[in-house]
What we know:
By secondary structure, the protein is an alpha/beta fold.
Amino acid sequence: MNKILDQEISLSSLKNIENEKVELEEIGSIVKNFRAQRGISRQILADRSGISIRYLAQLESGKANPSISILKNIAYALNITLENMLFRNNKNDEGIDHIIDRLEQCNSYQIEHVLQVINNIGRNNNLKKKKNKIALIGLRGAGKSTLGNLLSKDFKIPIFEVSNEIEKIGGMNISEIIEFGGQGMYRRLEYNVITSLYKKYKELIILPGGSVVSESETYNFLLKNFSTFWIKANAKEHMNRVINQGDSRPIQSNPRAMEDLLNILKERNNLYSKADIIINTEAKSIKESYKELKQKINI
C-alpha cells in the first residue's frame, strides 16, 4: 500500500514540476503581458525595477535567464507579488480543464458565442441590484466623461473622476504621486477613493482610470458593487479623440504610441469584458451612444 501511495505522490510531483517548468519558460511573455496591461513602457519598468532596458528586452523575448532577485524587483515594480506573476495561471479545477479542452475543439464563431453566453449570465439581475451606483470603465478617448456627465445631468446623480479625487487625497498630481510612491501608492489611493465614495453616496457615477481593471482587488470591488459599463472604441478612435481634445502628447512623446495602445487594448480586452454591459462607441455619435447607455441602464 505504501509503495502505491509513494508512486502516486511521485507521479503527482512530476506532473506539478512539468507544469511549473512551462510557467517558468514563459516568464518573458508573462512580464510583457503584465507590463502591457498596466500601460507601462519598457523604459519605465526598467527605471522602477533598477534593471537595464536591454536586459528587459532580452527577458521579454525569452533570451534571458533571470534570477529570483531580478524577478522580485520586476514584480514589485509592477505592483504584484512574485507568486502572482509566476503562477497566476495555476488551475486545479478539473471542470475548468474540461471546458478548456472542449473550447479547443470549437471554431472562432463558436468560441465567440460561448463568451457571449458566459458574459451575459446573471448580468441583468446584477444590474438591477446595483442600479444606483454606476462605473464607466475603459481607456481615455472612449467617451466615458462625455457620457458620464450626460447621465449625471439627466438623472441628477453626482459624478466623480477618480483621478481627480486621488489628487485631492494625495495632495499631488498623478505623475508626482507615482514618482513619489510608485504604482503601489497610486493603487492604494485609487482603492481608497472608490470604496469611500461607494460608502458615502447612495447614488453616484464614477469614472476610474483605464488601468483599474489590472488591479484585481479594486476591479473586483467595482464588479461586485457597481453597475459596470465598458465604454469601448477602437485604437484609432481612442487616439483621434484624445488629439481632438487638444492633447497631442501621446504621439509627440512616443513614436510607437499607436502600437502601445493596440497592445494595451489587446491585453485588457478580457478584463474589460467582465463589465456588466459593453457600450461600443465606434463610428457612433454621442447621441447614439448615450441613447444606448440609457436603454441599458433601464433594463
